[in-house]
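Hi everyone, sorry if this is the wrong subforum. Our group has a chain we'd like a structural model of before ordering constructs, and none of us has done structure prediction before. Sequence below.
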Amino acid sequence: MTEPEQELDFLSDSTEQTSTRFVTFIGPSLQRFDFAVTSTNRFYGKKLVTDLQNGKSAILGSDDLDEEGYIEHVFKLNEEEASELRLFLVQVVGDAYFTD
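Answer:
Right subforum, don't worry. Here is the predicted structure as tokens:
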């Protein structure tokens, strides 16, 4: 017996051209980082940052980089690794902007 068909209630569904930067680097601790940084018109200027090694993603702006423990939590990194990742992210993550 098949289950009854369920309808989805889409809150948003859009397609847009994006730009993705793929970066691999090694920090001073010799930790390797493989990231994809996607720029989009969504997320108020923040970037979609994806760790390609563990599949963790976050929408990040400069304000998020300043939040203590946030990078460690999101990407499951120790303090030293998060510090090295932050060095990279401050170069590519811009300020958020808000519209009315």
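For your construct planning: Strands lie at 19-26, 32-39, 47-51, 57-60. Residues 19 and 39 are 5 Å apart (CA to CA).
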